[in-house]
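User: Hi! I'm a student and our assignment asks us to look at how structure tokens line up with a sequence. Could you show me two examples?

Assistant: Happy to help. In each example below, the sequence comes first and the structure tokens follow. Example one:
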Amino acid sequence: MKKTRVRLYVCMLLLASFVVFGQKATQSVVRITPEQLKWVDEPDGLGFKTAIVEGDPAKPGIYIIHVKFPPGVMSRPHTHREDRYATVLKGTWWTGAGNEFAPDKTIPLKPGSYMKHPAGVLHFDGAKDEEVILQLVGMGPSETTRLRPQEGLFGHSK
């Protein structure tokens, strides 16, 4: 009786493994070229644009977006509900932390650089003399809270 149960469990385990490992992928590879991105202007963003690469920042789950700062535009101090992981794709990205909007005290990050914005940490960032493009990754739903909403989210870096 005991041997029969053991054999039955082994057969069930083998059958389950065949089902799991024998399944074929139901999705195909996703490729997106820069020309395929659909850039959207941020209202009152002074030319700041976003493009969704994967997911939806407004919904639960992972999202990947590209953001574009035109020369001379920075975000003012703000926080995000979620951790955000940023990689510089183009230009020099100028980054600062704290509640004072001080573009002259920002730290430059060149293409290929990485920075993490932990959830709830005040920061500001953007471009000075050249266009900047970043890739941001996070877990939605995303939320941005401005330190001083009456000033708007974007300002000039000079």
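Example two works the same way, sequence first and then tokens:
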Amino acid sequence: MIRLLGDFDLAEEALQDAFAAAVERWPVEGVPANPRSWLISTGRFKAIDRLRKTRREVGDEADVPLELSDTEDYDVADDRLRLIFTCCHPALHPDAQVAMTLREVCGLTTEQVAAAFLTTAPTLAQRIVRAKSKIRDARIPYEVPSLPDLPERLASVLHVVYLVFNQGYFTRADLATEAIRVGRLLVDLLPEPEAIGLLALMLLHDARRVTRTTAAGVLIPLEEQDRAQWNQEQIKEGVALVRRAFETRRAGPFALQAAIAAVHAEAPSSAATDWSEIVGLYDVLLRMEPSPVVALNRAAAVAMRDGPEHGLALIDAILARGELEAYHLVHAARADLFRRLGRKAEATTAYKRALELAVEEPERRLLERRLQEL
């Protein structure tokens, strides 16, 4: 429908009208032989009606194509992955590609997408509106890219899949499972090091799924998780994929993050983790992809290797640069380090600030528990 009409919002409205018509007519007239074609055809006419009622430009019904073929042959066979590739158009800014795809294709709320980008919902909404306007005004076609055109869209597609996985990490196991499924399809379609690295990263994180929260829904920190319950088959597959990505000598940020996750997954305990190796991997990642979030994760690893006071100094430096002030995890990490140093008053203040900013309920419950323990 988007391809027919060239407009996200109009396609969504038209399809809703078509479904409403189906609910009314199919029980009386019977389900048509080709429900998909019926919905698209009905949606097309509903869209033309909407355009005329709002006096938007529509010269003739022929201006809107009649239908899409049911037998179109695509290089990307999966419907969801095909739509993600279609929406990640290189004419748009990468952030706009990812934000719009997450909101319109993957079903995340504006608030969820905004949290992933560490911004506000109104700012994110405006970004999506501008992206849609550019598509409409520049007449950017909604066409499924062919195989040779896929690599230039891969980075944005991987980012979309990773953020969908992250959204499902705590409360939506179905989203995490779907992200892994799509990740496997990507590796089959484009076995690039970063696609392999992303799949490895998701598998290694997902291997800890059953140990991440208590029965009451409280987040369990990594050092407190029961490693005997981790999914060893997923860990084995993830580690093998990390090796495969690094063997190409073109490992990127996802492969590096997967390598860090592999070190954690193979360690018998938090104390026995090779924190020097993890810090070294973060050093490489920070050079490759400088970001305050990576710097925060590195600071946490330094705290485990060298002591909490060293990690705290690094986190304070991040905040002094005006970065991550509204990010709950920076305050949670800072609070944990204060707690380890026995500085209870400062830990309490930091935990309260993290709690003000946290959205996911499992994280909020852990923060509340930490406050009670002080």
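Here is something you could point out in your write-up. Residues 191-273 form one domain.
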